[in-house]
Write a structure and sequence with these properties.
Protein name: Threonine aldolase family protein
Keywords: Pyridoxal phosphate
Cofactor: pyridoxal 5'-phosphate
Family: Belongs to the threonine aldolase family.
Distance between the termini: 33 Å
Shape: globular
Organism: Streptomyces pathocidini
Structural class: alpha/beta
CATH architecture of the largest domain: 3-Layer(aba) Sandwich
């Protein structure tokens, strides 16, 4: 980023507490430019890349995962069918269906299960994705209703599932539970919760948008994890670096029915090969590396906690500690605007991007950000993290 652009960003923000004076579009461009220009970053992902770069990346890697001389897909055949076959094989399920979004995949899955069980009630955590991010789509679009076994910031226990005071046809478990800090239960806790749902004649569906990176925590292969559920949804962009898209995996009968509902929901897309090629390259390139990312996230999280303590900060939180996946939360006692401005200035001035976007919480003056460690973060040492934390906190303007 040019010095003129950096100066412009600072003058428009009016200081660390005035970043919201920039228009949303100007702030978006400023963020992407800062992340794009960063030489040190924990995870680059699909954010902060130009269209040209994303196209070049796809062109460079796709030949290793797919025969580019094959014909393009039409309404779900060809390369789409190959991706579905790969997913079913990886998860050990009878079949899988590609969906343009995970929101659609999960609505369809739960709607299909409701028809089979005769019960439209879904037991789900109040912080799960459908409850927080989907505009009440389960109720408004699919005619389902939700009940909550627990509101604690963790997955429900077997006891809570058994004691839920009304019938339910489906138990949906988000693995990991993102809004609670990408948290996971132990393997024993998970199997007991699944067993408790089965005791109540409920089917079990895994929201596995980030299931790919859960295997190291459980110490079990993906197939053994997916085998616990009656159906599983997985995402191709959250952990695998794809462009978009998801898959619903499960028994043939369910997947076949889901294709019919996918069509009704508007998901029968004419051609999907760009998203599918990116998904295939993600399976080949990123999936094998996820255990490495998970392991290094522990190093980064510990270094972050130690470095924040060393600044003399009276309160902070790294959660969970240690992380359960390659993603975790950091909490600080400052407004989100100040923290976002500090992070942007650090990236613009030093080409080191430690944190991305902070958001406020129910507690006034307390904010949270999510940290992701991928290939770009593997060479960060504890001392690198400590140096970046000092630079970040200097720009927050801490005054103890």
């Amino acid at each position: 980023m040019s010095e003129a652009r950096k100066s412009k960003g600072r003058s428009r923000s009016g200081g660390a507490d005035g970043a919201d004076r920039e228009s949303p579009e100007a702030l978006r461009h400023r963020r992407f430019a800062a992340w794009h220009g960063a030489e040190r970053i924990l995870s680059r992902g699909g954010h902060g890349q130009t269209i040209r770069e994303r196209l070049a990346e796809l062109t460079a890697h796709a030949p290793d995962s797919c025969d580019l001389d094959d014909w393009t897909d039409t309404y779900g055949n060809g390369v789409v069918a190959e991706l579905e076959r790969r997913v079913a094989e990886l998860l050990g399920t009878e079949a899988a269906a590609f969906f343009p979004t995970g929101t659609m995949a999960q609505q369809v899955a739960l709607r299909c299960w409701a028809g089979r069980t005769g019960d439209p009630t879904v037991a789900i955590h109040p912080r799960a994705h459908p409850e927080v991010w989907e505009r009440s789509a389960l109720e408004v679009v699919s005619g389902l209703r939700t009940v909550h076994p627990t509101s604690e910031p963790r997955l429900p226990t077997a006891e809570e599932v058994r004691d839920l005071g009304e019938p339910f046809g489906m138990l949906m478990l988000e693995l990991p539970l993102r809004e609670a800090g990408f948290v996971l239960p132990s393997w024993e806790e998970l199997t007991e919760t699944v067993d408790a749902a089965r005791e109540r004649d409920a089917v079990v569906h895994f929201d596995g948008a980030r299931l790919w990176e859960c295997a190291p925590h459980f110490g079990r292969p993906l197939q053994e994890l997916a085998e616990l559920a009656d159906s599983v949804y997985v995402s191709f962009y959250k952990s695998l670096g794809g462009l978009s898209g998801a898959a619903l995996a499960g028994p043939h009968a369910l997947v076949d029915e889901s294709r019919a509902w996918r069509h009704r929901y508007g998901g029968q897309v004419f051609q999907q090969w760009p998203a599918v090629l990116a998904a295939l390259t993600g399976l080949d390139r990123e999936l094998p590396r996820l255990p490495e990312y998970v392991a290094h996230a522990e190093v980064v999280a510990k270094a972050l906690g130690d470095a924040l303590t060393a600044t003399g900060l009276t309160w902070h939180r790294v959660h969970p500690d240690p992380p359960h996946t390659h993603q975790f939360q950091v909490w600080l006692p400052y407004p989100a605007e100040a923290l976002n401005e500090a992070g942007l200035r650090q990236a613009e001035e030093t080409r080191t991007a430690l944190f991305r976007v902070w958001r406020g919480s129910e507690a006034p003056g307390v904010s949270m950000t999510e940290v992701t460690v991928t290939s770009e973060g593997l060479d960060w040492t504890a001392s690198d993290v400590a140096e970046a934390v000092r630079g970040f906190m200097d720009r927050v303007g801490i005054q103890d």
